[in-house]
Design a protein that fits this description.
The protein has 222 residues and is mostly helical. It has ten helices and two strands; from the N terminus they run E-E-H-H-H-H-H-H-H-H-H-H. The protein has a two-stranded antiparallel ribbon with strand order 1-2.
Length: 222
């Protein structure tokens, strides 16, 4: 480790141009160990592989983003990433609630759990969704798809925002009324419902990007 290196960062043999975050080694180590335990069905450890495996993925991808761009979600604001884990729980339980109507997926568990144990284990697992999505989004964005940043702008007028928001409600209603046909819009309904609200409130919404002709977040998130 070199003198003056930031906490949590190890200087590589390439010098100061490339610094390898320690979380890359932690993440890769978790993936290697937990993946092996999972695939060899080494119980009881394999029964609890979901969270550590995805946590290792998040650490690894965040470190790769840092190596490519000299910044990353954890490097910029670690506590905010921790909040992503918390917000992810509510978000995915909402999708689970919608899935009660759609029945689009189900889980094969290694054994029977009590309702309390299942809720606890599911909550821990669901906490990884949002951090995994956003760290992966930043990795995709690091490749710099410039043509997508110079597409025609889409003005975020009040009428357009209201129409998009109402479209989100229409998707949600169609999902509940015709679940066998409308199940794909489950993943779009919340975006159409929430993004116009974030735009109106002045947040970092997709709408603010496309209003400038920058459609890259649409591709990166997808």
């Amino acid at each position: 480790m070199t003198a003056g290196a930031p906490d949590g960062v190890v200087a590589s043999s390439l010098g100061d141009r490339t610094r390898i975050p320690r979380r890359l080694f932690v993440g890769l180590g978790l993936i290697a160990v937990v993946w092996t335990l999972s695939w060899t069905h080494t119980r009881p450890f394999s029964d609890y592989a979901f969270f550590p495996l995805w946590f290792g993925y998040i650490l690894t991808v965040d470190a790769l983003v840092y190596l490519r761009t000299a910044t990353s979600p954890i490097a910029r604001h670690g506590p905010r990433v921790a909040l992503l884990f918390v917000s992810s729980i509510g978000l995915w339980w909402l999708f689970e609630l919608l899935n009660e109507r759609v029945q689009n997926w189900h889980y094969i568990t290694p054994r029977e759990y009590s309702p309390l144990a299942y809720a606890l284990l599911a909550t821990i697992a669901f906490s990884t969704v949002t951090p995994a999505v956003f760290t992966t989004t930043e990795l995709v964005r690091s490749w710099g798809l410039d043509p997508l940043r110079r597409l025609p702008a889409l003005r975020q007028t009040r009428r357009f925002l209201l129409s998009a928001h109402l479209a989100g409600w229409a998707m949600l209603v169609s999902l509940l009324v015709f679940p066998d046909v409308a199940f794909p819009v489950m993943w779009l309904s919340l975006i159409f419902l929430l993004d116009p609200l974030v735009t109106v409130l002045g947040g970092h919404s997709i709408g603010r990007y496309v209003e400038r002709g920058d459609w890259s977040p649409v591709f990166n998130l997808a």
